[in-house]
Amino acid sequence: MKIRDHGFWASNLFYYQSILNYYWLSLKFRSFTFFTLANPRIKLGGMLDERKTDIYDLVPDRFLPKTILYDKDKTDLSKLSFPIIAKPNIGFKGLNVSLIKNQKELSHYLSTHDSSESILQEYIDLEKEYAILFYCLPQSGKIGISSFVEKTFPHVIGDGISTIDTLIDRYKNPYLDKKSSKRNNRKCLSRVLPPGEKYVIGRIGNYSRGAKFVSLNYQIDDELVIAINKLRLQVEGIYFFRLDLKSNDISSIKAGNFKIIEINGAKGEPLHIYDKKIPWGQKIKDVRQHWSLMSRVVKESKNEDEAFMPVDAVWDSYVRARKLIK
Fold first, then answer.
1. The domain spanning residue 86 has which CATH number?
2. Does 304 score more than 90 pLDDT?
């Protein structure tokens, strides 16, 4: 059951603590839309229903996978090379993100979801997936990383006796859709893994899809901060964001060799709080620090004579976002 899972409580901790911080900062800035200045170049600061393609347009192409915004009248599906990732142009926690292996699966995806706002994206087959929460204070120029995790995909370990089908049944993760996992691995279900062999059963790096987040905060150093800041300097007007990226290892990230999967703005969580090795007292402190950093970023952005978004515009965005996740 999800209620017994560590991540369930970490998610609730972030949500309810964030509500308190939101109202406190709304009073402090005398605006319910203060967060819109965390990233002035991203719609609503990246808090609600910003379009992924609008953010991709800000980023140099070399950091991005090849991406197509699907148009049923213009997109030639016959020219696609599989596998690809299909996902909504607006997303929340891996909602409707799928690894597509062939034309049949793609046709099913497009007929099942709102294809008018679907992204078809090159699958990046690099070794590891990471999430880095970065901040920059616009006036003082202070930069840093407040959260760094490696995302581990759901996987099973062979015992020399059990089939992959049986191992998936035994896999203890309340967020993993086992029926979907078996469907996606149907060609291998009867295979018996040798003792100790690892088999990945899903490659979507979201906690809500069975992935785990391992804190690498102890690996944060000046080299890593400088590497991410080099990217930020090429994208004017973003100050508080989380990069979800793929790379072979940490040294490759520092060398600038990575591909960005997502850029989450003000709604990006400090994902290291989902690591159960982090004490609860530290999680509470880190969520408070997360909102404190956002507050400092917004304060310095406001000093640049930027204006907060009108409440009605934000409310309309909130209503659209709620419809998406129902």
1. 3.30.1490.20
2. no
